[in-house]
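Pasting as-is:
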Amino acid sequence: MVEFTGVKKLMKLKRFSGVIIIALFLCASWIHSGESGSYVGKEKCAMCHPAIHETWQSTRHAKAIESLKKSGQEVVPDCARCHVTGNGKDSGFIDYELTPEMAGVQCEVCHGPGGKHITDMTKKTINREPGETLCRECHTKGQDPGFDYKEKVKSAHGKK
């Protein structure tokens, strides 16, 4: 067995440190990607629910942020909160520069963060039927006076 010189030991230590840094980065990425119960975004939901994702894309929820952009209100926090996913929450929408993929009213606005659902579908980690109370957080009588929950819930995922 050949004994390492000081330089070789240092090179080996640097390589090992690099591996540790990469491992820590991957671990952090894995946690941020939703494995800890955080928001994962519509694309991950679409992997298992492609038909729902396809019809949802035609809904007003999918294009919710566009209605704010037309009136220049997309940067108004009280307005944006109802037009994005996971507003201000861990791994949710932060702003249009950092998290543009979380714009729009996606699956997780109604059904909750999907990270745990992705890793363990055997447990109740997703809200299958959100109900009118959740919808009324954004569809208030002042903002949406004509909102009829019983009618709107029929097309929440779009029309097939």
